[in-house]
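Tutorial, part two.
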Amino acid sequence: MPQVPESAIKSLVQNFKLLSDETRLRILFYLSQTKELHVRALCDLLQQSQPAVSHHLALLRVSGLIEPRREGKHNFYHILPDRFEGLLDLVFSNIPSGERHIQFDSHLLSFLRWEELGALWGTQEEIT
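Running the prediction step on this input gives:
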């Protein structure tokens, strides 16, 4: 069985604790569906107050999962895909590339990098 460095475990625990909150997961889901969203739009989607949403956004921002773009007095947030890639790399780092999956009862979570997926299915442009 592959060994996982202690620092990787601690980093994963910290990230999974952050992602264990329903509101933060919903924020990430909404941001994944669009290029960026204004704080007010997130408040409306989540049906939560601006201070509550801003608290969750701050935690996600400090963790490096999202980033704001300021336009006048307004903040628009977007996901930082490289940070998610790094998190997945950390989860699957000690597993050989052909075996990068975790099986649950009725689901299979697999991790393929674009270059691996391209070898199976074609170019990135063809896939997206």
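Helices lie at 6-19, 22-32, 39-46, 50-62, 81-92, 114-121, 124-127. In part three we will examine how such features are distributed along the chain.
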